[in-house]
Amino acid sequence: MTTSKPSSSKLWIRCALVLVLVGLTVWLSFINQAPTMATESGVLMTLPDRIGEFWGVDEPVTASEKTILPSDTEFAKKSYQAPNGEEVTCQIVLSGAEKRSIHRPEICLPGQGWTIDSSEFIPVPLKNGQTLTVMKLTLDREVETSPQNRKHITMFFLYWFVGKDKTTADHKVRILLSSWDRIMHNVNHRWAYIIVSAPVMENFKPSGFNREQTMQMLKDFIANIAPSLIKPGVVIR
Hints:
The structure is a single chain. The chain is of the alpha+beta class. The chain has one domain (about 35-230). Helices cover about 25% and strands about 35% of the residues. The protein contains four helices and eleven strands. Strands 2, 3, 4, 5, 6, 7, 8, 9 and 11 form a nine-stranded antiparallel sheet that branches. β7 (about 130-145) and β8 form a beta hairpin.
């Protein structure tokens, strides 16, 4: 009785399967090991006291932010007010060693009572001649203006991510870049996100800005503050 030899095609299939398993093993070993180094951040964590006609006052980090995020997460937050009474909030959140330090703000906002009406990427021309793409969220929630009187208020919430050498407003792109650095270079890419937000105060106070005026105010604010927060050498997109 003779034993037939495996065909060459079957041998190639077996070899290919072995190579796939080896590659998968190597890939899993990379993603499961702790990164040996963390990159420098691409942001400056000191918010300026003045931006144009706006004067800033430090704001404390909320208890929920301290509870939810890892202890090595860094924060900077100011509330900026203009002479006309309009107010802009600016915040930086910088990740530590753990990946869960940074996430899409869309995850937290519903828990704070906001409904996300829309989201879109928008370009913002900066004072240094570059153009920064940011994520614009249009938020809505009901607030009590007086006993038995409630109104809906709109908030514009603009944010973008800053890595060691580039910016992106796209969370999926940030994840891909982080995964590439972690797998190929065993580096924990340290990201920050910068938030600039303001409510639409029309119908809430005399001479309050409408939606168009509020958005232009935020764009002008970002145009001035972004170049002072993003380190030289970071590619702005």
